[in-house]
Amino acid sequence: MKSILFLIACLTLSSIISEAQYSRFIITFKNKNGTIFSLANPSQYLSAKSLARRSRQNIAIDSTDLPIVSTYLDSIRSIANVQILNKSKWLNQICISTTDPVALTIINSLSFVKTTAPVALRLMAPIGRDSKRMEQEQPTTEKINNQGSFTANSINYGNTFNQVHLHNGEYLHNQGFTGEGITIAILDAGFFGYKTNRVFDSIRLQNGISGEWDFVAGEQSVNEDDTHGMFCFSIMAANRPGSMVGTSPKAKFYLYRTEDVSSEYPVEEQNWAAAAELADSVGADMISSSLGYADFDNPSFDHSYAQRDGNTSIITRAADLAARKGIIVMNSAGNDGAIGNDQKFVACPADGDSVTAVGAVDANGTIAPFSSWGPNGAGKRKPNIVSLGVATTIAGVDGNPSSGNGTSFANPNVAGLIACFWQAFPEFNNMTITDAVQRSATKFNNPDDRFGYGIPDFKKAFAILIAKNFTGTLSNDKCVTTFNWNGKDNNLMRYDIERKAGTDTGYTRIVSIPGLTAAFGLNTYSFRDSLKYSSPLNIKYRLKQILPGDSSLVLIDSAIAITSACAVSSGIMVSPNPVKNNINLTINAVEAIQKMSIGLYNMSGQKLYSYERSIPAGLFTHTISAAGLPSGVYIITVRNNHKIIFSSKIVK
User: Residue 388: is its pLDDT beyond 50?
Assistant: First the structure.
């Protein structure tokens, strides 16, 4: 018995001695038993913005959302020489600071404590080295000359045009999608000088920086720390037309420092987890992180390749939980691709199942040698996508354009464009957005371990979600074919209905219907095709949506059978009725009309609109804008040589 007690005492002493060099520890709790909160009343512990995101994406509240049990925290606080640095309710753990071995012994004896593990050395002066995460990511000292104007676009990008154009990102910007309404939390090593750097003048004036916190120093300022986060921030938020414009210049940002560049220890992963939870609380839609962890100053903490499996490290589990809460989590893949062996594979949290890991290519689409490889330790496809990470334009500390290399810069470049993309399609959840981005990429059909799914194309991604939003039907009643559909559009777009009958060799466009409103949104349409054929036949129809830039989507492609002859007669149809913005008039003319006139009248007989021309035999369509008309009843007429051949009431 004495020998056993002596052995226990020796082991305890050995443990205390081995931990004496550490001052920061992770305390993990066994459960959340005894919590005063309930899943049925989440407003007690989740912010309104967090709840709104979950509601919008149909995400259930679960036990990870519950706060850490307050009595557990009170017990830890009551122990002498212990300070709680931060908490993670998702992982049910806290980070503490103490140098007192007696305090650790007491903590380990608590019935609700699951584990106690050191995560960082005693606080000391900086060791004097840069974090391994920053390798190959320092900017060049040479300034970049302005590359000229790009007047075909709505934005004069200057030096950032190539990194936007690599993804057809200007396609989003030209339609007004610049990140407005999307909130991005940037987790990094510091944002040196961002409060005075002129490249951020615009976003400061527009109150685009919503908050900041330093999880390393425990203070509300990130302006005096490392430059790395500032570089990444500039890729998204810069707004100096003709010099450099970021990929999401109208987004809102939170700036969080989680990385301590003076050393590398797992405490930084815990900082990241706490920052991700704060991002959730303040209502962030996205996390952009250009950090990664695989090897540490003390090799005993290293994450082996097998452990980079998407489910093991603190930071990866936190990243996947953030995605589970409806946040898009973007992270750089890592810069160890040229090292070889197991070190070449993606770091944490890029290994996460629900994390979009971003590798680096040059402007020609060639993979950067330093870009880390996939798959992750469990064999899952990594990286997910790639972006410009070679000679990426960033802001220097003086506000002038500079350039740098690294997956750290590839990540915010494409993350900003994803923010613009989500602005266009807020009705979809985070996973649908990132899936569409991957499907648009150059190697989606043949992904590999360097590119993942390749370089995203946001013009293609836009079309993918346009098609996903579409619902429509095609029906036929004797000699009338009816289209009913809902589509997302604006007045820069239109719908073409095409018809091919009998022995026709090609399709003929029978009507072109412009989008209803200037704002991009979901609208409802209806169109009837009155047929005139002397014998039964098969007819094929196509409904196409024409997007800006001459892109077309075939949304309905269907055939119908006309089983009896359709009388050859004139037909005139007006739609929609009631009308909102545009009146569409369709005339099937048996023969040419030499003097056709259209009139629109109010119920007092006042002519509000007139149009006159000759039309050939066949199909003729005409659109009248009703957007400026007050609500009421109107009469539309069609005349042939002053003889009324059609009259109908229209309700606005």
Answer: yes
Q: What percent of the chain has a predicted confidence (pLDDT) above 90?
A: 71
3-state helix, strand and coil shares in percent for the chain, rounded to the nearest 5: 25, 30, 45
Chain Cα centroid distance, residue 119: 33
Is the residue at 4 inside a domain? Answer: no
Helix (H/G/I), strand (E/B), else coil: 464: helix
86-95, 452-461, 530-539: range with lowest mean pLDDT: 530-539
**CATH code of the domain in which 584 resides:** 2.60.40.10
The pLDDT tens digits for 247-284 are 999 999 999 999 999 999 999 999 999 999 999 999 99
Predicted confidence band of residue 152 (pLDDT cuts 50, 70, 90): low
Give the closest residue to 244 by CA, choosing from 176, 152, 150, 180. Answer: 150
Cα dihedral sign, 311-312-315-321: positive
Only one residue has tokens 């002493």, namely 13
**Together in a domain, 560 and 626:** no
462: tokens are 């836009």
Residues 409 and 551 in one domain: no
**Tens digits of residue pLDDT in 285-338:** 999 999 999 999 999 999 999 999 999 999 999 999 999 999 999 999 999 999
Would you give the DSSP letter of residue 69? Answer: P
pLDDT in tens, 529-546: 887 776 788 899 999 999
Number of H helices, E strands in the chain: 13, 29
* Angstrom distance (rounded) from CA 633 to CA 622: 20
User: Are residues 235 and 260 in contact, defined by beta-carbon separation less than 8 angstroms?
Assistant: no
- pTM summary value: 0.83
In this prediction, residue 348 carries a pLDDT of 98
Q: What is the DSSP string of 357-404?
A: EEEEE-TTSPBPTTSPB---TT------EEEE-SSEEEE-TTSSEEEE
Total number of domains in the chain: 3
Q: 569: which 2 tokens?
A: 């007669």
Neighbours of 66 (CB within 10 A): 21
* Cα distances (angstroms) measured from residue 557 to each of 465, 478, 497, 543: 18, 20, 10, 7
Task: Report, as an integer, the average pLDDT of 615-634.
Answer: 84
Domain boundary among 403, 438, 464: 464
Plot region of 166 (φ>0 → left; ψ -120 to 50 → alpha; else → beta): alpha
DSSP 63: G
**Residue numbers of the domain that contains 606:** 571-652
Residue 134 has pLDDT above 50, yes or no: no
**How far apart, in whole angstroms, are the C-alpha atoms of residue 411 and residue 187?**
12
Backbone angles phi, psi at 54, to 5 degrees: -65, -40
Question: Is the pLDDT reported for residue 354 higher than 60?
Answer: yes
Q: Which two tokens stand for residue 381?
A: 């496809």
How many CB atoms are located within 10 Å of the residue 81 CB?
12
Which pLDDT tens digit goes with each residue over 202-211? 999 999 999 9
Tell whether 542 is covered by a domain. Answer: yes
Statement to judge: residues 446 and 385 lie in one domain: yes
| 42 occurs within a structural domain | no
48-54 long-range contacts, CB within 8 A, separation 24+: 48/283, 49/281, 49/282, 49/283, 50/280, 50/281, 50/283, 50/325, 52/283, 53/283, 53/285, 53/325, 53/326, 53/327, 54/325, 54/326
- 332 and 411 in contact (C-beta within 8 Å)? yes
Q: Mean pLDDT across the stretch 570-590?
A: 80
Phi, psi of 435 (to 5 degrees): -65, -40
408 and 530 share one domain: no
